[in-house]
Amino acid sequence: EKGGWDSFMDKEIHEDPAAVQRTLIGRMDDDGHINLDEVRIDEHELKSIDKIIVIGCGTASYAGMVAKYAIEHWVRIPVEIELAHEFRYRDPILTPRTLVVAISQSGETMDTLMALRHAREQGSKVLAICNTQGASIAREADAVLYTQAGPEVAVASTKAFVAQITAAYVLGLYLAQLKGAVYRDEIHSTLASLKDMPAKIQWVLDTQAAAIEQAARELADSKSFLFLGRHVGYPVAMEGALKLKEIAYTFTEGFAAGELKHGPIALVEPGEPVVFIVPPKRGRDVLHAKVISGIEEVKARGATIIAVAEENDPDVKRYADIVFWRPACPTLMSPLVDVVPLQLFAMDVAKQKGYDVDKPRNLAKSVTVE
Ligand code: F6R
Fold it and tell me: Which stretches make up the SIS domain (predicted)?
């Protein structure tokens, strides 16, 4: 059932391209029109939505953070992201014009389910982004957008994450289409970029695996890792840090690169591995320059720099000790490729340390208690 792979995690990371592709199938036509008849919430009600709150836990919450950047940009309505267990117990402001988007791979996470129930009791509509047909969260939501990643067996979530981001993007573009918020051309070109992503993920899997394995061998004994990113690279940094801590039991911290000088830089000492998610240089040059200056700052303190960056980025070549390359893509699409080397890296480090990557200690695949 592992289909020739030596772990489910390995198999599932290699299913990232298919997970994205399958999540797009049947949801858009060739002239850039998104069809989400499966979302049974009345179009007029969706048009009247004035706030979105995305909820989830762990990896799903990082997919939700990515969703915030994209949906606010396209739809121009406020999007909040909150951990489901925090949301539920703080009396959040919910109205019939609030759309709550609950993201869950298993569809059985009790924290997320309780938050969903609370939102519905307060009169808000809940749309679930879920990977498991007929799961509790899918059943109790007003509407479901299934991620089509296929069953995920390894405890650490991988292909479900890229599928969740893809589904959130489809939802965002659909709402943009409904609200007329983004010109048809922009929806069209964004969908075209999204369709290109499976091939770009495949490129990372095909060309970067050896470098990632080598890096894992070199760094497996490190006591801790820092992961930094900006904009959509921030949730990717959080997710990279989570993967490594859960399966390799290495202490990691992920944070927004802009926070460095507000505290975390105090942790940087010679040899400390610091992973940077570097945004594309085109388009959002400012972001790129800021991340590069963060790299310079920690490099000056002797850190070992590991970068995830766009192919041939000259600044990264200059400063990074180790680079995992990815093909060029628009900034908003970059999490779909940038997370892939971090998934492989976490798996390779865990294997180096001799751990069972599919069944990390103390963790369960679905957390059905609050
Ligand atoms: C991380 C991981 C967990 C889950 C979280 C939510 O690799 O697996 O952080 O993402 O427990 O689970 P779901 O998506 O099933 O609600």
Answer: 42-181, 215-360
Of 105, 159, 165, the residue with max ligand 1 atoms within 8 A of its CB, to mutate for a pocket test, comes to 105
Whose CA is closest to atom 6 on ligand 1?
Answer: 57
As a whole number of angstroms, the distance between CA 138 and CA 136 comes to 5
Ligand 1 atom with least separation from CA of 58: 9
CB of residue 119 inside a 6 A radius of ligand 1: no
**Among 38-52, 57-71, 285-299, where is mean pLDDT lowest?**
38-52
What pLDDT is recorded for position 76?
93
For the segment 211-246, what is each residue's pLDDT rounded down to a tens digit? 999 999 999 999 999 999 999 999 999 999 999 999
Residue 107, beta-bridge partner list:
none
User: What is the arrangement of strands in the sheet containing 224-229, beginning at the earlier edge strand?
Assistant: 251-256, 224-229, 273-277, 304-310, 322-326
Residue pair 35/145 in contact (Cβ under 8 Å)? The answer is no
- Say if CB 141 and CB 128 are below 8 A apart: yes
Give the C-alpha separation, 103 to 57, whole Å: 8
Gap between the Cα atoms of 15 and 18, Å rounded = 5
Please list the residues that pair with 348 across neighbouring strands: none
| Strand bridging mode 251-256 / 304-310 | unpaired
The token pair at 315 is 């600044």
